[in-house]
Amino acid sequence: MITVDTYTNANEVSGAFGSDTAIMGGGTLLMGALNYGRQNITKIVRITDPVMKQIADAGDRITIGAGVTMSEVIRSRDLVFLAPVAQSVGGPAIRNMATLGGNLFAGTPYGDFTVALLALDGIVKYANGSEQDLEGFLASRGNRRDLVVSVSVKKPAANEFRYRKVVRVKPMGRSVLSIAARLPTSAGRIANPRVAFGAMGTTPLRAKAVESALDGAALDANGIQAALAAVSKEFQPPDDSLASGWYRNEIAPVYLRRLLLNEGGA
User: How far apart (Å, rounded) are the C-alpha atoms in residues 194 and 262?
Assistant: First the structure.
């Protein structure tokens, strides 16, 4: 038997649940898991704290509540740069339910929104007030039982942020791979880039060798060659029903080039 508890204050939930308890955001992941055989859940926790629905602009960063849905991201004037990412998550019905917080826990080949947050230097905030960089969160997300209340990201300058999703079923199927990049420039050169890939591991991952190759390079066909050479050696992508790891490695530099140069094509 499964019971459902509702909390109006996120702080009341932190640390108050065990391995048999699931937090419910939009339910797009949880209900699928329950319907297809996950038997160890005996309690579902719903949180209606308005803090988790806030979008707060604070200088060079913007904070997005864990309960904000993909549809709300699309409608937000403050999150215009993330609207194309949210639009790539499922169809309208899914986007009306799927939340930022749920996307943080989505396994490959899902979690495309988290790929973008990773490229934008995401910082996770927990209900107990502590914070953790998103890369660290992803590395340990299966072990922590703290409640995520928000993620803050750097606001990119115009034309600084880029995103691309590769699918077999268009326009919004599961990812063969996804790529997000923040590409600041200084004196005509890329400066301190962040590049993240989805579906190239069990979680979204930063492409650190690609970042190193791009740092200081010109954003043109010649300047990105070292980065394209680096990407195929960076990951050990999984095999699944969508694509083999070999195939993902083969196409990663193709789509990285298209993203970096703003080239057309799916």
Answer: 16
Q: In this structure, are residues 167 and 151 in contact, taking their beta carbons and an 8 Å threshold?
A: no
Q: Can you tell me the distance from the alpha carbon of 74 to that of 49, in angstroms, rounded to the nearest whole number? A: 21
CATH architecture for the domain at 161-261: 2-Layer Sandwich (3.30)
User: Would you state the structure tokens that stand for residue 27, as one six-digit string?
Assistant: 């339910």
Task: Return the biggest CA–CA distance within the chain.
Answer: 62
* Residue 161 burial by Cβ neighbours in a 10 Å radius (0-12, 13-18, 19+): buried
- The helix/strand count (H/E) of the chain reads as 10, 14
Taking residues 99-105, report their average pLDDT.
92
CA 106 – CA 202 distance, rounded (Å) = 10
Residue corresponding to tokens 């459902």: 4
How far apart (Å, rounded) are the C-alpha atoms in residues 158 and 160?
Answer: 5
pLDDT band with cut points at 50, 70 and 90 for residue 147: confident
Pairing mode of beta strands 43-47, 21-24? parallel
- The predicted pLDDT at position 34 comes to 60
pLDDT tens for each residue of 107-146: 888 899 999 999 999 999 998 899 999 999 999 886 767 7
Fold (CATH) for 50-154: 3.30.465
